[in-house]
Design a protein that fits this description.
Helices cover 10% and strands 36% of the residues. It is mainly beta. Bound molecules: zinc ion (2 copies). The site of one zinc ion has 7 residues, from α1.
Length: 149
């Protein structure tokens, strides 16, 4: 049994913990994710909100995903750190933002979405699954990342 994985927002108002191991991570290089991360790309891990022990209250706003579905974007209302996304509110299936983990340095993205929009100068692992845009079935693609290679 691996030890609990911990993380939280930048100001510390929201903290979370879950039982490891950390699920396979992926990165997205689309324009929305550049805005969301205020950087070159986002990194996420798919998981269930119910497996997180959360302290502090997150707030959310809605955007529309590429598939046209409503996405709820959860963040800290104090410091603005983006924490997780979900198709539902209250959240169930979420994508947790890897940069909020206390220790994320050992995590390699297994796959990359929207490589066609990738920031110049960012090199990707040739062994990773690289999608020029995004697959039709994103949930299936995420699930496959854990099993390939
Ligand atoms: Zn905060
Ligand atoms: Zn994206």
């Amino acid at each position: 049994m691996s030890k609990p994985v911990t993380g939280g927002c930048q100001c510390g108002a929201i903290r979370y913990a879950f039982q490891g191991p950390v699920p396979p991570a992926y990165a997205c290089h689309c324009g929305e994710c550049k805005k969301q991360s205020a950087s070159a790309f986002s990194m996420s891990i798919p998981m269930h909100y119910q497996t997180l022990a959360v302290t502090g209250n997150s707030t959310s706003f809605q955007t529309e995903s590429f598939s046209g579905k409503i996405k709820h974007n959860f963040f800290c209302g104090n410091c603005g750190t983006r924490l997780w996304h979900s198709g539902n509110n209250p959240p169930d299936a979420i994508t947790l933002k890897v940069g909020t983990l206390d220790e994320s340095s050992g995590i390699t993205p297994r796959g990359h979405l929207w490589v066609s929009k990738k920031q110049q100068g960012i090199e990707l692992d040739p062994a990773s699954d690289q999608q020029m845009t995004q697959p039709e079935d994103l949930i299936e693609w995420r699930a496959q990342l854990g099993t390939s290679k």
